[in-house]
Design goal:
It is found in: Cell inner membrane. The structure is a single chain. This protein is an alpha+beta fold and about 625 residues long. The protein has 23 helices and 17 strands. The strands form 5 sheets. It has a 4-stranded antiparallel sheet. The protein has a 4-stranded antiparallel sheet with strand order 10-5-12-11, with helices on both faces. A 4-stranded antiparallel sheet has the order 7-6-9-8, with helices on both faces. Helix 13 crosses helix 17. The longest helix has about 35 residues. It is extended, with a radius of gyration of 37 Å.
Length: about 625
C-alpha cells in the first residue's frame, strides 16, 4: 500500500533520527563558576535550553548512534542538520514533560511492570519460577550506563509521554468514504497522448559564430568552473594485502584439524522410540503422581517384554505425533530434543530401555534403536577447508599487528608513502581529479567521506604530508597524500571552446523546440483535429510507462473536465513535451482484504497527521521558542 510514498522513503532518514535518540535528562554543573554563561538556544514553558545543554545532548546522541551503526555517515552526524534534529528532540521532550505535569499523568507500578515485560531482553531474564533474575537485570541496564532505578524512572517518563500523544494517535479513524477518496486519488489512472519536441532535432537549425560562442562563455562563466581538485597517491591495507604475508605451516593445519575434528564430523544419529504420559508443569501434584504411577506400570511391562514396545506405545502413549507409529521418533541428533530426554537417550546403548525420564511434557520411557556413528573424515579430505579457516584466523590476528605498524609509519614518516609500501608490500596507487566529494561511481577509499576530508585538510594541502591511517571499511585502512593541488578556477575559453559550442547549441536548440511546441500547443487547443500525437497510453503514479517525472506529474495534476485537457511541459535543454489528457481510466474493484489494509494504513497516516497537529498546539501552549535558524536541507543522493 502507498508504494509511491515508500519509493521516497530514503528522505525519512532525518525524522527517523529523531525517533532513535533516547530522551535525555541533563542536570549540569553550574558552569558560570568557570566560564561565561552559555547562550540560550531554545525556551520551553519558561525554561532555558542552553548551547552547552545542546552540545552535551548531541555528543551523547552521536556516540550512541555510532555504536548502533558504525558505518553511519560521520560527516552528516556532525553537521548542522543532525545537530538541529537533536535540538528539536530536546524541545519535544520538554514539551511532553510539561504536558505530563499539566495533565497530572502518573504511571503506577503495574503499568511499569507490564511495559518492562514487553521488552524481549528483560522478558528473557525470567527464572523458571516466573521471578526476575535481579542480578542479570542489573547487569543488562548497567551495560547501558544506567542503574535499575534510573532506567525505571526513564521508563515511567516514556510511558507518561506516550499517554500525552497517545490520546490523539490511538483514537484516529477514517471512514470508508475518506479512505476511498484518498486511495482513488493515489492510484488514479489517466489516458494520455504525447507530442515530443526533442531539442536535438532542432540543432541543425542553429547558426553559430565564434563570437556567439564566446559571448555565451562570458555570460555563463560558472558552467566552466573547474572544481578544486588534487592528484593523490594512496595505499590501502586490508585483509587481502595481509594474506600475502602469511602461509600457514603444516603443523598449524594438523593442530587445527585435531582441535576441531568434532566440528567437522557429522553428528551421531540415533533411532529412538518412546512412550509419553502427559504431566505438564501446570498439572496438579495429585494428577502428576497418578501420571507417574501409570508410567511406572508401563515401564515394568516394557522391560518385561521389549519386543512388544511398539504395541505398548500404540495403545498407551499420549504423544499423538508418534503414537500411531509405535512411538518412533525417527533419527534424532544432539540438540533435537529437550535436555533431560537427550541426556538420557545419548547415554543408552542400542536395545536399551530407559528408566522414567521426566521433562516439561511429562514422563517418558525411551527405547534405543540403531545408533549411527559418524565417519571420521581424514585430514587430506579437509585440507582445503582447514587451510581457508586457518588462514582467515591468522589474517585476523596479523591484521591487528600490521595495522599498528601501518598507522605508525604513515604518521612518523609523513613525507612519503614509499616506506610503508616497501615495508608491508603494498602498492602505491595514484588518482587524478580527486575532489572533496566522491565522484559518481567511486569505490573504496575514494568513496569514503572521511578519507576525502583528510586529503583536503590544511596540513595535507599545504605541507603535502600523509593523512593519518583512516578506516575506510571494516578491517581496511588507507592513507593518502596530495601530489599536486589545483584551486577551483574558471577554465580559459580556449580550453573549453568545444564545450561552450555544444552548450550554446543545446541552449538554442531547446529554445527553438520550446517555441515550436508552444505554438502547436495553442493551435491544437483551438483545433485538435490537426494534432500529431502518439498513440494513447495509460499512466499512473505507480506505472509511469517510462515517462520522466515532470511529464507524469503534469499529466496527473491536469484538471479533467468534459473535454480533454492540454498541458505543456518544459524539459529544459532536453526540449518540450505537449501532453493531452483524454480521460480518467477507472480502476478495478479492490478485494475486501486489500480495502481493509488500505483503510488501516490510511488511518495510520491520518493518526500521524493529527498527532503532529496536536504537538504543534502543545508547542504554542507552552510558548516554545527556538532561537537558532533551521539549517538549509541538503539532498540525500
Amino acid at each position: 500500500m502507498f508504494e509511491t510514498i515508500r519509493k521516497y522513503s530514503k528522505v525519512l532518514m532525518y525524522p527517523l533520527f529523531l525517533l532513535i535518540i533516547l530522551s535525555f535528562v541533563l542536570v549540569g554543573v553550574n558552569q558560570n563558576y568557570f566560564t561565561e554563561k552559555s547562550p540560550v538556544v531554545a525556551k520551553v514553558n519558561g525554561k532555558d535550553i542552553t548551547q552547552m545543554d545542546w552540545d552535551n545532548a548531541h555528543r551523547v546522541a552521536s556516540d550512541r548512534m555510532r555504536q548502533q551503526d558504525p558505518n553511519m555517515d560521520a560527516k552528516w552526524m556532525d553537521g548542522p542538520e543532525a545537530r538541529y534534529l537533536t535540538l528539536e528532540r530536546m524541545v519535544r521532550d520538554q514539551v511532553i514533560d510539561a504536558a505530563v505535569q499539566k495533565m497530572h499523568l502518573t504511571v503506577d507500578n503495574a503499568s511499569l511492570v507490564r511495559a518492562l515485560q514487553e521488552i524481549p531482553q528483560i522478558a528473557a531474564l525470567k527464572k523458571p519460577d516466573g521471578s526476575l533474575d535481579v542480578d542479570a537485570y542489573r547487569a543488562l541496564v548497567g551495560a547501558q550506563g544506567m542503574t535499575p532505578e534510573g532506567f525505571e524512572a526513564g521508563m515511567r517518563r516514556d510511558i507518561a509521554a506516550r499517554q500525552v500523544l497517545g490520546g490523539v494517535s490511538n483514537t484516529a479513524f477514517a471512514t470508508d468514504e475518506q479512505t476511498k477518496l484518498a486511495v482513488d486519488a493515489l492510484y488514479q489512472q489517466r489516458e494520455i497522448q504525447l507530442a515530443q519536441f526533442a531539442a536535438k532535432d532542432y540543432a541543425s537549425q542553429v547558426k553559430t559564430t565564434d563570437a556567439d560562442v564566446e559571448a555565451f562563455y562570458k555570460s555563463n562563466q560558472e558552467l566552466f568552473r573547474q572544481k578544486e581538485q588534487s592528484t593523490i597517491e594512496y595505499v590501502v591495507l586490508n585483509a587481502e594485502a595481509v594474506k600475502g604475508m602469511i602461509k600457514p605451516s603444516e603443523d598449524d593445519l594438523r593442530t587445527y584439524y585435531k582441535e576441531n575434528l568434532s566440528r567437522f564430523m557429522d553428528k551421531e544419529q540415533r533411532r529412538i522410540s518412546h512412550i509419553l504420559i502427559d504431566a505438564p508443569a501446570s498439572m496438579s501434584a495429585a494428577d502428576r503422581d497418578k501420571a507417574k504411577q501409570r508410567a511406572e506400570e508401563l515401564l515394568v511391562q516394557a522391560k518385561a517384554n521389549p519386543a512388544q514396545f511398539a504395541d505398548l506405545a500404540k495403545k498407551n502413549s499420549q504423544d499423538t505425533g508418534s503414537r500411531d507409529s509405535g512411538g518412533d521418533l525417527g533419527w534424532v541428533k544432539p540438540g533435537d530434543m529437550v535436555k533431560p530426554f537427550e541426556d538420557a537417550a545419548f547415554a543408552m546403548k542400542s536395545g536399551d530401555i530407559s528408566d522414567l525420564v521426566s521433562t516439561e511434557y511429562g514422563f517418558h520411557i525411551i527405547k534405543m534403536g540403531e545408533v549411527k556413528t559418524p565417519r571420521t573424515p581424514s585430514f587430506e579430505e579437509l585440507r582445503a577447508k582447514i587451510e581457508t579457516e586457518v588462514l582467515a584466523q591468522q589474517v585476523q590476528r596479523k591484521y591487528a599487528e600490521v595495522a599498528e605498524t601501518f598507522s605508525n609509519m604513515v604518521f612518523e614518516q609523513s613525507d612519503s608513502l614509499q616506506p610503508v609500501a616497501e615495508k608491508l608490500g603494498l602498492k602505491i596507487q595514484k588518482a587524478e581529479h580527486v575532489t572533496r566529494t566522491a565522484a559518481p561511481g567511486a569505490t573504496g577509499a575514494l568513496a569514503n567521506p572521511t578519507f576525502l576530508e583528510a586529503l583536503f585538510s590544511s596540513d595535507a594541502l599545504q605541507n603535502k604530508r600523509n593523512t593519518e591511517a583512516i578506516e575506510v571499511a571494516p578491517s581496511t585502512l588507507a592513507s593518502g597524500r596530495v601530489v599536486e593541488h589545483f584551486d577551483a578556477r574558471i577554465l580559459p575559453f580556449e580550453e573549453v571552446k568545444a564545450k561552450a559550442h555544444d552548450l550554446f547549441v543545446a541552449q538554442k536548440s531547446a529554445e527553438l523546440a520550446r517555441q515550436d511546441a508552444q505554438a502547436k500547443l495553442e493551435a491544437w487547443k483551438a483545433d485538435a483535429a490537426g494534432a500529431k500525437l502518439a498513440s494513447p497510453i495509460v499512466v499512473s503514479r505507480q506505472d509511469a510507462k517510462g515517462q520522466v517525472p515532470a511529464v507524469l506529474n503534469a499529466a496527473m495534476h491536469a484538471k479533467i473536465g468534459d473535454a480533454a485537457s492540454w498541458v505543456g511541459v518544459d524539459l529544459g535543454n532536453d526540449g518540450y513535451t505537449v501532453v493531452r489528457v483524454n480521460k480518467v481510466v477507472p480502476r478495478g474493484e479492490d478485494s475486501a482484504e486489500l480495502r481493509l489494509r488500505q483503510k488501516q494504513e490510511f488511518e495510520r497516516y491520518q493518526a500521524n497527521a493529527e498527532t503532529l497537529a496536536y504537538y504543534e498546539m502543545l508547542k504554542e501552549r507552552f510558548k516554545v521558542q527556538i532561537k537558532v535558524p533551521r539549517p538549509a536541507e541538503t539532498k540525500i543522493s
